[in-house]
Amino acid sequence: MPTAIVTERLTKSYGRARGVVELELTVAAGEVYGFLGPNGAGKTTTIRTLLDFLHPTSGRAEVLGLDSRRDSLEIRRRVGYLPGDLVLYERLTGREHLDWLASLRGGGDATARDALVERFQADLDRPIRQLSKGNRQKLGLVQAFMHDADLLVLDEPTAGLDPLMQEEFHDLLRETVDAGRTVFLSSHSLDEVQHVADRVGIIREGRLVAVERVEELRERASRRVDVRFAPAVTPDPSAFTGLPGVTDVSVRGDLVSFGVTGSIRPVLRVAADLDVVDLLSRPADLEEIFLTYYRGDEAADGPGDEHGAAS
Fold first, then answer.
1. Residues near 113 by Cβ (< 8 Å), separated by ≥ 6?
2. What is the tens place of the pLDDT at every residue in 205-220?
3. Rounded CA gap, 154 and 57, in Å?
4. Alpha carbons 268 and 289: distance in angstroms, whole number
């Protein structure tokens, strides 16, 4: 499969301080790749090294088939970038700022820009110093997407956005990938990444500790099931204990509650033969799996080679 980003043992050190360590990263063309980790894990360092704002201590990277050092100017022409520490010229209006950025790229497509401005309800007429964080972020999104870049590199893209604008952003990501472009989305937000990414790479303390397809993570995540019995029935938890994938069975009054990993069919078959009046299955939540990687639990420590994990 064509690749948008490839790194080979990419390392960036700040003297004795850790940046990223021997990062082996492969992002396929046409996917949303979620780059996930807590603050300080190395996400922003990775992005700045890919775009040649920082020079690697060792190793190498290719972006869109180009060498990140030798071909950095051409890479930047083909990349839309939203930094996590977005800085805008305070005295300019939003319109003046977008016009200036477009001029740096030779003009750009005003129609595409205007459509994005309307979509995100961006305020173009006030000086940027008067705008809220959310309205500044809207300008950042517009400037990243308005050139129809081959690759979008987005660092904490929904910071400051309200829920409606976050949903609009998610729709835009889907349209971008449908058009054959690639999104590299760096975030510490578990909820955001699991809803929009095809795959996630999890970085901790500068090292890539896992690469997983989101669907595979969901299959491993435990959903919570509550089974309520008729008032006259004494719940028997043993009916569910021992079923495939069932863990943590508990009883509270007329309610039996437990976790289920994998298929819920065995639970439904047992419940159908009992005097059950209600059954509630809550969707699998990936948060606990992600937090396991964040905490560095031994159970989560495995090979960081994503070539096997991405198959």
1. 98, 102, 142, 146
2. 999 998 989 888 777 7
3. 23
4. 25
